[in-house]
Structures are given as C-alpha cells and as structure tokens.
Hints:
alpha+beta
Amino acid sequence: MDFHNEINNDIKFLAKSEIRLKILSELKSGPNSIQELVKKTKITYSSVSSNISKLEQKNYIKKIKTKYYLNHKAKIYYQTLMDFKESVEIIQDYTEFWDKHDLNQLSIECMKNLTDLNDCELIKTTPLDIYKTHNTIKSQMMNSKSVKAIFPYLHPEYPQLIENILKDNGNVELIIPKSILNPITSRIDAEIRKKSIKEKRLAIHLFEDDLKVYLTLCDETMSFGLFKEDESFDQNRILISQSKKSQKWARNLFENIKQDVIE
Length: 263
C-alpha cells in the first residue's frame, strides 16, 4: 500500500464514525478513562469501549494505567478533519460568495487556510442600498491610518480617500493594474503624493495582468471581494472581518500577490 492510500484509509476510518470523532475530540483535550468518555460524550459504555478498542488496534491511542492518550498522528488527522469541516461550512454558509466566482488568484496557502475566515460577515447590496459594499469599505478606509489594498478597478472616490490618509501622515500600499496608475495618482495632490513617496508612506506595485481579487486591509478590518466567472467584478457582495485571523489571512493574500508583481 502506498503512502497516499494509507493516509486516505486512515482519514476514512476516523471520519466515517461520529463516535470515534467524539472520542478523539475528548482525548485531544487530555487523557480520559472509558468511564470519563462515556460521561462526557453521553455514548453507551459498549459503543465507547468498542471504538476505543478499534482506535487502540490501529495505534491511534495508547492506554497508560486506566487512561487513554491520543498519539501525535491521530492529533494531526483529527485537526485536519476539523479544518476541512470548517472549510466546507464556510463555503456552504457563503455559497453565493464563492460559487461561480474566479478563485485562480488565491494561493494554495490561502485556500488551505479558509478556516481563518470563519467569523467573516457577508455584506450584500440591496435594492434600497445599492452602495452598501462600497460604503462599508469607504468607512473602513476613512477610519484607518494604514491601508494595504488590491484594487482591480478604479472607484472615483479612491484617490481622495488615499489622499486623506496620506495627508494625515498615514501609510498606503497598493497593488493595482497598470491601466489605473495614472487615473489614481493624477487625482492625488502632487505635493502630498511626492512627499509620501519620498517618506516611503506610499508604495504602488503594478500588476501586468488583470487582477481577479479585491482586498482592503485597514487598521482593524479587512474586506475581500471576487470576480465572477464572466470576468466582471462582483460589487454586490464582499466578506468583511475584524478578527486577527482574518487580517492575517488577508495580509498573506496581499503578500502572495505582491510577490507575483516583484517576480
């Protein structure tokens, strides 16, 4: 049996039993006896005992005196399963955000760490508020001293928002397509622009090809948008979050695309 198949079989063995997953969850927190597992999981003694035996036979757990301990491989498999479960839940919770959208510019690392977005909020425009997504992003930028952003297109208000941040001695770092460089920079006060570049508070990275993601990373928030499969930007929905995990995810996405620019 090759290594790949062995891992697949291990994952299948653990995933196909809710009882085994509950046992692993308790043992991941610390060693437990069978009696303790029965009490915590509210599963019958016979079912716990039977599955403990199966886990022990496959060397996922070991018994020391009266308590069972989880080994390192089982901990990794269990965490992998839980991460996958969370990723599936994120996709299901925000199906309309992910479905029929272009994900090609998301790195493998970003895709793997989708669970970092589990506390995001989906912001959608409505017939009564067609500017809801833009106004949400605008509010974030207006209340920030530092902004990292990936702008695949130019909104008329972006130059003024950027100028205001720079005027207040803030920092702005942009990744944009070449086609919108002049329309953005020409609408920022020349003295403020030159002074900010000299003081390294304004940096602009030009992307040769079309950008397929939208991102703003502000002082305390991040917002993230995608293009639809027809290559138009979906201005009707964005994900936003204030969590540290989501901001880290957004920063990684920014740096990955920035690396593509540098290379």
